[in-house]
Amino acid sequence: RYRLPRHALRIPYTPPTSCRHRTYSNTSRLNKPIQISEAVREALVSKTPIVALETAIYTHGFPYPDNVGLAVKVEAAIRESGAVPATIGILDGIARVGFSQPELERLASTAGQNTTIKVSRRDLPFVVGMRHITAYNGGTTIAGTMLLAHMAGIKVFATGGLGGVHRGYPNPMDVSADLMELGRTNVANTFEVLETQGVFVGTFGKAGAKVMLPAFYNRESNIISPNILESPRDAAGLTTIPDASHTMGLTSGQLFCNPIPEEFEIPAKDINKAISEAVEKARNKGVFGKDQTPYILNEIKEITKGASLPANIALVLSNARMGAQVARELVFTSP
Ligand code: PSU
Ligand code: MN
């Protein structure tokens, strides 16, 4: 198979016609590695509230075709809440900030293909650098998405599940890059699952009440939330800190936790049993690293006979709406 010499990546070069169809993607080598959609650009320029969204949840966290439906619904929820969605992911080897609906449907429908990669911080240079050779598609994880959102100047990001410290740590020593990214990139987030350090963490709830950090499929974990946010405005007030903290040299993110809507909660004893079984099965099968969460999510779906999906959808939509409200407050309160 023809391979492009490494140095050729740096100079304009058109391959001979004879090998073009076999070895080159239809993506021009002169295409910019990062592209921001017209809608997101306009929103940035006009200071319209924007919410960034990840795509690994579609390519690696949800089965097809539910993932396509979810992708479309999440964007709609953000628009209905008065903000502009900026879905972030890799399409044909290009890091995209903002997708059209057909593009979004196309990316989600490539879930499961071996040229569709789960893209965290470490994978970005690979998928983007290889774009002249192989047109990879990719769902960006929270870490990958935060990095690109920050680059584009987007301050609020909504999602479902944050990567964490896998059970059994330090054996295996598997800690998601999501947690490291929150430590160094100042983008605000609404999430569910949570193990973190060095980052502001607050949970939406009533001041004075005992507010627990939410678990994923149910509203309460057994950890008390270090802070309470009474409203999206509280969260926005905190998010303006990045501007101040920038001058102080602080570049960390903030994590705003939003418990799953009550009516979609799965009782802790049921879901914890499913999670333990799924984790156990992953371990026995030797599934590790980036494959672990997708495998476990799929097992939980099987064990709960599909009941985990509506819960997951509900919490993501609820977070999207909350993210939009925070982004709106941020626009109103920012200088
Ligand atoms: N948890 C979920 N659903 C998901 C993910 C986590 O309930 O889709 C995805 C997110 O994209 C998250 C990523 O950023 O998994 C974390 O993967 P890793 O542990 O490989 O960093
Ligand atoms: Mn992980």
Automatic annotation (TrEMBL):
Top-level division of the source organism's lineage: Eukaryota
Protein name: Indigoidine synthase A like protein-domain-containing protein
